[in-house]
Each structure stands twice: as C-alpha cells, then as structure tokens.
Amino acid sequence: ELCVSNADKGEQPVAELERRAGAVVRRGHRLLITRASLFKEKAALCRGCDFVVGYDTYRRIVNPKYYVPEGKALEGASEE
Fold this sequence. Notes:
The protein has about 80 residues and is mostly helical.
C-alpha cells in the first residue's frame, strides 16, 4: 500500500509516487495506492492483510496524537 497523503508530510509529489510505485511494480509486486494516511484507515480497506512497517511508522501507530480524538482518554480511543 502506498498512500498519496502522509499523516505528517501531507500530499506526496506525483513524481515521488511514480518513482516509488515503479520500484515496487518492477519487482513484480502488486500495489494499492490509497488516501488512507492512518493505519486504522488502511486496516479497514485491507481487512485480513498483514503490514510490515519500519520503526518510524511503528512509532506513529502507537502515538496517541494520531489515534486519540482531542478531549478523549487513550483507553477508549481504540473503540472508534
């Protein structure tokens, strides 16, 4: 999965998306291009799929900044 919009960096330039997509496709892999910038959105689109992520992405996944709505406690945020 390659996201058009990054949660921190915003929209990715088209040339960068083409470069990254080309590198994946040339190796014979399939690629899904989405606008799902958060992993809860990716998981909803790709039910049953496994994701391999790097350390920086993992840190964003577990960071309440991205998944806990303002004014809510961390404990109830995953129920949305």
